Give the backbone structure.
Amino acid sequence: MLVAWGFTTDGERVFVSGGYPRKHVQAVHLDGSGKTAWENGTQVYVPSMIVHRSHLYAIQDSGVAMCWKCDTGEELWKERLGGTFTASLVLVGENLFATNESGETFIFQANPRQFESVAKNKLG
């Protein structure tokens, strides 16, 4: 049995993540073949991933944000934000919002070239 929590699509592939029985992010072709386009051993267990302009963005439960190319799965960057995350990423314009369980919201650009922090806010 494979448990996959979050999924999203770019129209050509569906991206799923799971943590049991194995940790992985997987891209499956949407052509009806059921073939895997790419897969890695990253655990994105609770927060859902998001696709923006042919790139897949995710935040791990452990507070690490990352970006992959949708077509190849190439990891473009990875950045530790800190905290425990269960909320999914939210895209507003060109910015991604990630809120951890301590009420800190990290805002960073949906930029595949590099991680670019915009702001960090703490909820009261």
